[in-house]
Amino acid sequence: MRPEDSRLNDLGEFALIDRIVALLGDAAARDIVVPPGDDAAAWTTSDGTHGGDLAVATIDALVEGTHFRRDTMSMADVGWRAVAANVSDLAAMGAEPQYLLIATLLGPDATVEDIDGLARGIAEGCHAHGVRVAGGDIVRATTTGLSIAAYGRARRTADDIPALLRRGGARVGDRVAVSGTIGAAAAGLALIDAGRGDEAGAAELVRAHRRPVARVALGRAAVAQDVRCGIDCSDGLLQDLGHLAERSHVGIEVALAQVPVHPAAAALLGAQAALDLALGGGEDFELLLTGERDTLIGLETVDLPVTLIGRVVAEHPGEVIAWAEDGAVYEPPQRGWDQTRHRGDGHTGRA
Amino acid sequence: MRPEDSRLNDLGEFALIDRIVALLGDAAARDIVVPPGDDAAAWTTSDGTHGGDLAVATIDALVEGTHFRRDTMSMADVGWRAVAANVSDLAAMGAEPQYLLIATLLGPDATVEDIDGLARGIAEGCHAHGVRVAGGDIVRATTTGLSIAAYGRARRTADDIPALLRRGGARVGDRVAVSGTIGAAAAGLALIDAGRGDEAGAAELVRAHRRPVARVALGRAAVAQDVRCGIDCSDGLLQDLGHLAERSHVGIEVALAQVPVHPAAAALLGAQAALDLALGGGEDFELLLTGERDTLIGLETVDLPVTLIGRVVAEHPGEVIAWAEDGAVYEPPQRGWDQTRHRGDGHTGRA
After folding, report:
1. Is B63 helix (H, G, I), strand (E, B) or coil?
2. What is the CATH number of the domain that holds B255?
3. What one-character DSSP code corresponds to residue A336?
4. Is the CB of residue B149 less than 8 Å from the CB of residue A57?
């Protein structure tokens, strides 16, 4: 019996990461362009005393049971999704993704068919996101999963500022925008779980769960327009906005009525459930950006809407408050995400 | 019942990797400076039409049960070892390691103490190898393990040749050298398993198992002396030489009497067992290099011997033959490594 088990569960992912970084001491690279704690790390690739390209890199792990289930997606879907989730971290930095390194864990019941499906899904995900596999490793394990490291590049501006989206880049007065629609992936999973994945209208939601798309072009366009704050929506809208608020030492207010819930999710699951999934469901891999109103609106394309959903305020630094049109503060259902980021206090700012 | 299970086991790691790379099609980056298949991948980091620094990158996964056991090493040892094994792939390219990205998998019985030990071991491994952690991820899984991606850099020479050690760089007439002593890590593990880890003389072998050191300085010195072929000894001396022979389309002959077996292993386990562990045991992370005799000898330092053990020949391309002083060809015991690399044919070249 190990006495610490409960302490580990109590800590949670983010406290655990903080603990590890503290224990690493000066083995953590705190002086690079983007140190541990953002969507990806970045460092200068030249020896020059000024300027030079930036390398942007990130690592993720997806394992069966925790991040995917074989009864809701094929191994090809798993391969695609792992690529998309990883590339999304570079998109969230506004970087240009280039190469992936992939470590594959094969559980005891893995088959050649599984490997083939995984490889096909990875190839399709690479094509869709404009990246290629530069190397990898394959190991036997008690679980099946993938760990992917993605590597991309970014530049410095003419005045030597890293052209990157940062979690800490939100400024008071910024508007907050989100791309696409939110909650589709979680709605797709909920429908599959309810045996409703084949219902009319469900296909797009199921696809959002199995074949999400990272917003690479949007991230790069945002950086080119001098937007400097962003994150991808992987943990759920409110939690991811919480990361921005915390890192930027600002408050964020969200107008629930503006959140672009997927219409099929609302139609099939009801408006409230669809909203809950949008705010807490995560894994849509849309981008959350803050910046000037006109700049954010100007990022919208015919393929991808960009919707203003809130604003950055000086009040309640580190906290996100989401409120309804009647002024009520949103109280999330007891789901997987960290409530400490969303302590409502009745504040009634407007997006 | 899945019918393909046995096929997967029959395929083996290397055939599986070839299969995956084939399925990736043009999603595999075949046109970069070092494509999939070497110790690490390498690509140019500048947009320039010539020259430019090279990024060198690799990924590995270590999981409990397959790559480490909690009864032979502490979690701090696991952390150190994961860093060393990963950095070794960059050392084997002659690259300068810089940054690590670390994905940590926490099994159901992981404790806060485990995490703390892991972080301390990673920090110690980073200090020993001159690298730092730039980012990471931490996930719940059914197994405990680490996936590490390492990033480093290398240069092009004045005549625009990548200054790297390649598996395919061996030339007929080259001598073959190995650094340090071989078989120490496997001997240390064998002694622990036999309950003999505390015996006099065992400490250095046990340490080689728990705290191996990647040969970063040697790899860089070799590249600086225009050595262009190398690999790290991670799968076992004969198997790793087999990779060089196969990639370089040459034969390799090894003189068993020259192989620098660790003296403590021979003393504690007997000469034949120590030799078997040296040739097949792996995980020493010493470097295997081929090149001109005087160049290889000149790489030796007061801290690290470099021993000539064989030569590169035109005969039996893709195969390694190891022979004793009496002319007998070495027949390995039936252990984990791939016999197809070592088909002896009685050839009697001399190192």
Report:
1. strand
2. 3.90.650.10
3. S
4. yes
Q: Which of B319, B94, B70 is nearest to B214 (CA)?
A: B94
The answer to whether residue B15 neighbours chain A at the CB level (below 8 Å) is no
**B111: distance to nearest CA of chain A, Å?**
5
Is ipTM > 0.95 here? Answer: no
Tell me whether residue B335 is in a domain: no
B9 vs A279 pLDDT, higher one: A279
| pLDDT tens string B30-51 | 999 999 889 999 999 875 544 5
B316 pLDDT band, cuts 50/70/90, is: very high
Contact present, A189 and A268 (Cβ < 8 Å): no
**Chains A & B: contacts with CB separation below 8 Å:** 255
Using the Cβ of B149 and the Cβ atoms of chain A, whether some distance falls under 8 Å is answered with: yes
The alpha-carbon gap from B300 to the nearest alpha carbon of chain A, in Å, equals 29
Model confidence at B235: pLDDT above 50: yes
Residue B1 has pLDDT above 50, yes or no: no
Which CATH number does the domain housing residue A131 bear? 3.30.1330.10
Indicate if B308 and B188 belong to the same structural domain. Answer: yes
Query: B1 touching A, CB under 8 A?
Result: no
User: Is the pLDDT at B91 greater than 60, yes or no?
Assistant: yes
Query: Looking at B155, B183, B207, which one is the last position of a domain?
Result: B155
**Residue B160: inside a domain:** no
Q: Are B278 and B259 in contact (CB under 8 A)?
A: yes
Mean of pLDDT values over A1-16: 67
Domain housing A307:
175-323
Residues of chain B in contact with residue A134, where contact means CB-CB under 8 angstroms, are: 29, 32, 35-36, 41, 43, 57
Does residue B179 share a domain with residue B127? no
B96 and B234 part of one domain: no
B79–chain A nearest CA distance, Å: 11
Same domain, A38 and A131: yes
Contact A102, A122 (CB under 8 A): yes
- Determine, for residues B133 and A27 on separate chains, whether the beta-carbon distance falls below 8 Å: yes
Closest chain B C-alpha to A249 CA, distance in angstroms = 21
A238 within some domain: yes
Distance CA A184, CA A267 (A): 12
CA–CA gap between residue A163 and residue B55 (Å, rounded): 20
Alpha-carbon distances of A290 from A223, A345, B25, B295, rounded to whole Å? 11, 23, 39, 58
Is B80 an 8 Å CB contact of chain A? no
Same domain for B127 and B234?
no
| Number of domains present in the structure of chain B | 2
Interface probe with B: pick from A45, A88, A113, A144, most Cβ of B within 10 Å: A45
Q: Please check whether residues A184 and A306 belong to one and the same domain.
A: yes
pLDDT digits (tens, 9 = 90+) for B64-75: 988 899 999 999
pLDDT in tens, A182-205: 999 999 999 999 999 999 999 999
Residues A185 and A295 in one domain: yes
pLDDT at B105 over 70: yes
Among residues B319, B344, B340, the alpha carbon closest in space to that of B329 is found at B344
Identify residue B324 by its one-letter amino acid code: A
The verdict on B105 touching A (C-beta cutoff 8 Å) is yes
Among the ranges given (B3-7, B24-28, B173-177, B342-346), the one the predictor scored with the smallest mean pLDDT: B342-346
- Whole-model pTM: value is 0.91
Task: Please tell me if residue A297 touches chain B, with a CB cutoff of 8 Å.
Answer: no
- Residue B210: C-alpha distances to residues A349, B33, B186 (Å): 57, 34, 10
- Give the pLDDT score at B336: 45
CB within 8 Å: A135 and B41: yes
Mean pLDDT of A118-122: 96
Q: Is residue B253 included in any domain, yes or no? A: yes
The predicted model gives B270-285 an average pLDDT of: 93
Same-domain pairing of B182 and B319: yes
